[in-house]
Amino acid sequence: MSGGASARPYPRYVAGTRAPATWGLFTFIATESILFSLLFSSYFYLRSSATEWPQGGIAASDLRVPAINTVILLASSVPLFWAEHSIKRGNQTGLRVGFALSFLLGAIFLALQLREYSRLPFQANANAYASLYFVITGFHGVHVFVGMLMNGMTQARAWAGHFDEKRYLGVQNASWYWHFVDVVWIFVFAIVYISPHVL
User: Fold this and answer.
1) DSSP3 helix / strand / coil % (the chain, rounded to 5)
2) Could you tell me if 49 and 127 are in contact, meaning their C-beta atoms sit under 8 angstroms apart?
3) Terminus of the chain with fewer CB atoms < 10 Å: N or C?
């Protein structure tokens, strides 16, 4: 190794912009985007042929809890931006605290969503609207849970010292996935919660 080289060798793919793990993440996000697009299309297709929406006398959702959840979920991306920015500068504390805060906000989001489910006056099999409500919000909730698992694994690796200013691909991918989940929620909130009130 030359005198100016780092004492630790880093495989080219670890930090490169064409890392296999990053392309894999992009492919996964693309397929999940298609699935959500199909769910949203199904929602509007069934709504266009319905004489009333929501069906069966179901009232449009109360927006208070979903609005709070929207703020919480979008806010959870901020600590991840900070965490990724921190590790690129070798700041281990910023990395660990950022991921921990994001995990906490994600857990609060899921807890509020489950609380909302427990208070709904309808079941998933009531009609098409009810089925779509549970499928779309539940499918997104599963993605939040997966993001929390990724967050937890990344935190464990962070505490084990696996990341530094040159090696942070796992941090980047976990962060990007979480940002994707946040963006999808904006569409879920607009379509499932707001649209019955305005369209």
Assistant:
1) 75, 0, 25
2) no
3) N
> Mind spelling out the 3-state secondary structure of 26-50?
HHHHHHHHHHHHHHHHHHHHHHHCC
Nearest Cα to Cα of residue 121 among 26, 177, 57, 72? 57
Residue type, 23: W
For residue range 173-185, what is the model confidence (pLDDT) as tens digits?
A: 999 999 999 999 9
Task: Quote the tokens at residue 36.
Answer: 């959500």
Q: Nearest 5°: CA angle at 186, between 189 and 132?
A: 40
Take residue 92 and report the two structure tokens written for it.
């281990």
HSE, side-chain direction, 13 A CA sphere, residue 118: 6
CA 45, 50, 56, 58 dihedral sign is positive
Residue 163 burial (C-beta neighbours within 10 Å; 0-12, 13-18, 19+): buried
Q: Are 100 and 116 in contact (CB under 8 A)?
A: no
The CA distance from 95 to 84, in Å, is 7
Whose tokens are 């030359």? That residue is: 2
Whether 145 contacts 110, CB under 8 Å: yes
pTM of the model: 0.89
Average pLDDT for the chain: 91
